[in-house]
């Protein structure tokens, strides 16, 4: 099963990658830009595998570039907060 098929597994995957990036010394700005690039790639190249991804895909498709950056930043924030709890 792909990590994209289960929302909680996807968030755990992102949290692990985020922790690696932070441990590797990447700045919050670089992480934010990477999150945007990943979101843009997924929106253009990957079919949503679950209802949560479908919502993100739909939001991304109608958002301006600035709003897409906000969505990406919120996903980073979501996985940061989840890893704290």
Automatic annotation (TrEMBL):
Whose protein is this, by species?
Aeribacillus pallidus
Q: Which domain of life is it from?
A: Bacteria
Q: What is this protein called?
A: Uncharacterized protein
